[in-house]
Amino acid sequence: MSLDTPNAFADEENILLHTALFKQVSPAEAEELLPHLHRASFDKGEYIFSEGATDHRMYLLERGRVKLIRTSADNRVQLLSIHAPGEVLGEIPVFDPNGGPRTASAVAMSNGTHVAWLERDALFAWLDEHPRVAIDMLQVMANRQRANNERISDLVFMDVPARLAKTLLNLGSRFGEPVEEGLKVPHDLTQEELAQLVGSSRETVNKALMDFSNRGWIARDGRSIVIFQPGMLIRRSRR
After folding, report:
1. Under 8 Å between Cβ of 90 and 100
2. Nearest-angstrom CA–CA distance, 96 and 23
3. pTM for this predicted structure
4. pLDDT tens sequence for the chain (239 residues)
5. How far apart are CA 104 and CA 184, in angstroms?
6. What DSSP character marks residue 4?
7. CA dist list (Å): 2 to 13, 60, 102, 115, 226
8. Which residues, other chains included, contact 227 with Cβ-Cβ below 8 Å and sequence gap of 6+?
9. Which GO terms describe its molecular function (predicted)?
10. Which CATH class is domain 158-237?
11. Angstrom distance (rounded) from CA 172 to CA 176
12. Does the 15-155 domain belong in CATH 2.60.120.10?
């Protein structure tokens, strides 16, 4: 980790204006938070925060990608989610009256991952001045809770190929790059990590990927996948 110059934000680079939590905030209101905003950069594999920590920081992802993971007592790892620039990380301890502990670890997925963070006291003091912003925060957290509930439901009711199809579509909608052949999804995940994200074993996910490929729906290209027929993946995700 390396610390950047604190609060070194030009107006056009104010990350607060590009996050879901602050989408209704005016530039003038966002400026009030800048003196309390800190920045740091991380290389691939470095931990931004760790499961079990009791800090009171909320993080904003400015550049790069970050994965949230949980580790079991026997050191098995579960990949929970992947986050892109403009998204908020680690907000749960900030709004937990007991202040933690953190329920997951955040790990940088690429070199030069940039984050900014706010301490809870600074955020809450600002919310006292702008209480309507709390409504936007509640909406974002409600959407995350909805997504978590959907993920749990998928694990219970969907088979692995359906979950894989849905995961590929989600990654495609967030990170996909149009190419001549279709939609290229550079997910940067190992086979094991992709299986963790789907919630299955590597062998089972690889079997499903091979089936999708044999059907002509997708093609694998290193740590990328090219989606040829998104409609077929949508249909498979609904079975």
Report:
1. no
2. 23
3. 0.83
4. 666 544 444 444 576 777 777 777 788 888 888 889 899 999 999 999 999 998 889 999 989 999 999 988 888 888 999 998 888 898 888 887 676 688 899 999 999 999 999 999 999 999 888 887 778 778 878 888 888 888 889 888 999 999 999 999 999 999 999 999 899 998 888 889 999 999 999 999 999 999 999 999 999 988 899 999 999 999 999 97
5. 29
6. P
7. 19, 16, 22, 11, 35
8. 168, 169, 172, 176, 182, 183, 184, 185, 217, 218, 233
9. DNA binding; DNA-binding transcription factor activity
10. mainly alpha
11. 4
12. yes
Q: Which helix (H) or strand (E) holds 164?
A: helix 160-175
SS3 190: coil
Report phi then psi at 118, rounded to 5.
Answer: -125, 140
Amino acid, res. 117: W
Domain layout of the chain by residue ranges? 15-155, 158-237
